[in-house]
Every structure is written in structure tokens, then in C-alpha cells.
Amino acid sequence: MGITLSANQRDEKNRTATSSCWLWFLQVTLLDSTEYYFVRNTDDRTYNGIKYTAAGFDIGIIRSDTEGTVPQTVLKVPNPGRLMQQAVEESGICEGANVLLTRVNSKLIAEDHSNLEYVFTITSVEDDEQWIYFNLGNFNPINRPFPLGRYKAVHCDNIYMAAECGYAGALPTCLHTLEDCAAHDNTVRFGAYIGMKNGGLKIA
Question: What span, in angstroms and rounded, lies between the C-alpha atoms of 15 and 6?
Fold first, then answer.
């Protein structure tokens, strides 16, 4: 993962002696839009007009390569402080949430550090008495199903009596076949691709 530093960032990085330090700023946006802001430091800091609460979280090595591997790492948040325990216990709002990690030099905190941002998605969560472990990764487009839908020749995927189906008659059930659709006098809404019945590859 190539990173281009600004002139000031490069100067601070290359100094053999300096009073500045490199801080991790962490923003977690849960699926219910709740946001948490932490800085890996002993006192609170303000960055981009937002106050970040001091927390002793830990970040593993951010692993990536030149072969298209999705960057991934592990974020550890101290559990004794119960900083995010409620969010962990409420299922469904952590996994899939967004995480923004930004590396910021304390001396240059008023400057833009967007070139040192890492964006992740929480893929899974574990916890024990000491730590909450957020496994971070990213969506890999290679793993995305394509096409998104399945194309069937003789089975209708429409939900019976839903908008796509459009049937509003008296028959209580449907077998999702063309023959049964005809019995419902609703073949115009048949949700399959009967042109595929002769076999062969069809690309839509």
C-alpha cells in the first residue's frame, strides 16, 4: 500500500530527535449511526474539530500486498473501561460497521492527514474480560456474486401476491411454475426466463 507523505510529515518522520509523536485517531460508525471517537493517547485530543477520547486501544499490523489481498488487521479496545460494551452486546450494529483509522503527527495536528487514513469494515467481533477484538477487513469485489441475481428458466422468483407478482385473485397459493401462473391468468408477470429452456449459456 503506497503512501505519499507531505513535506512536513516527511520531515517529522525523518527527525532523529523530536518532541512530537505519531498518534492513531479512531472513528467507529456503527450500523445505527452511533459514532465513537478515540485517540491512542493518555489525554483527549481534538482533530478536525472533533474531540477524541483518550483510550489505550491497540492496532495490529495492517497487512496488504501487491497481489490484490484485501487489507486486514485486528483492533483491540480495552474492555475494563466498557467503552463499547453496549454496542458489542447489541447484535447487528457492529459487524459491517465502518472504521476509520488516521495516523496523525501531534505537532502537525492542525494539518490534513487524509493521506494517512485507513478505511475498514468490522467483519467480526469477539470479547473477553480485558479486550474487545474487532477483526477489520474490507469488501472484496472479487468475492461479489455476479450476476447478483440467479436466472431461472422455469421457476418464478416473484413473491406471491407481492408487487412484482401483481396477482390479487382468490387462489391462495402458487407453485411458481409457468403452468400454475397460467392457471392464475397471470403469465404476463411470470418471473422466470423461459427463453433459457433450450439450454446453453445465456449472458444478461
Answer: 14
Statement: residue 80 has pLDDT above 60: yes
- Point out which residues pair with 154 in neighbouring strands: none
- At residue 72, the pLDDT reads 80
Domain count along the chain = 2
CATH of the domain at 130: 2.30.110
- Residues 129, 51, 103: CA angle, nearest 5 degrees: 75
Cβ atoms 38, 55 nearer than 8 A: yes
Burial of 113 (0-12, 13-18, 19+ CB in 10 A): buried
pLDDT band at 138 (very low <50, low <70, confident <90, very high): confident
Q: Quick one: 84 and 101 in the same domain? A: yes
* Euclidean distance between CA atoms 93 and 36, whole angstroms: 13
Whole-prediction pTM: 0.61
Q: Is residue 2 a part of any domain in this protein?
A: no
Q: Are 191 and 175 in contact (CB under 8 A)?
A: no
Confidence band, pLDDT 50/70/90 cuts, at residue 200: very low
Residues 33 and 130 in one domain: yes
User: Does one domain contain both 137 and 194?
Assistant: no
**Residue 155 is part of which domain span?**
145-204
